[in-house]
């Protein structure tokens, strides 16, 4: 019994008429660009294709390229006044820039409290900012950071019991930072609840406490 010839569909006829697309690399290398082995593409802006594309881009005049600066409107005045607490852990050099920031915030009507180590009490108050003590010894903290520059303390610190002392100190500072957001002013008794908190990077690093 003779077998029937296979029926050709319209899609088969259409596939023969439509050529398969060339490889991606051939498309990229045809004229204006080349593909390198690492995947980067070098585009030749002086190629015929690029020059043809430039004909469809409107040219800008010098007046369009050089525009006058916007009119200066002066500082923006805000009606919202915030209670801001600034947490600073570190040395006097860490505290000083935030005093300048606090003084500038005061000029805009904000109430600023700087919460840091007890030893900087008079330094902060003389600058005109409110002060809240969070405890901690900055000299001891800086010495610990010098001995342990990474997040994992070395064996000498572990043997000397420095981790336990640091945990106690950090607990004191964490509690002090929390209270500085909600407690009344220690000197005047004026109520205070923080609307915004600003903290320096050493404060975040100090709060990384190794687990026992």
Automatic annotation (TrEMBL):
GO molecular function: hexosyltransferase activity
Keywords from the named record: Transferase
One Pfam family hit: Glyco_transf_28
SUPFAM superfamilies with a match to the protein in the record: UDP-Glycosyltransferase/glycogen phosphorylase (SSF53756)
PANTHER family, sorted: GLUCOSYLTRANSFERASE, PUTATIVE (AFU_ORTHOLOGUE AFUA_7G04880)-RELATED (PTHR48050:SF27), STEROL 3-BETA-GLUCOSYLTRANSFERASE (PTHR48050)
Matches recorded under InterPro entries: Glycosyltransferase_28, GlycoTrans_28_N
GO biological process: carbohydrate metabolic process
Protein name: Sterol glucosyltransferase
Disordered as annotated region, ranges: 1-23
Superkingdom of the source species: Eukaryota
Ranges that cross the membrane: none
Every Glycosyltransferase family 28 N-terminal domain range: 84-203
Compositional bias segments (type: Basic and acidic residues): 9-19
Gene3D superfamilies in the record: Glycogen Phosphorylase B (3.40.50.2000)
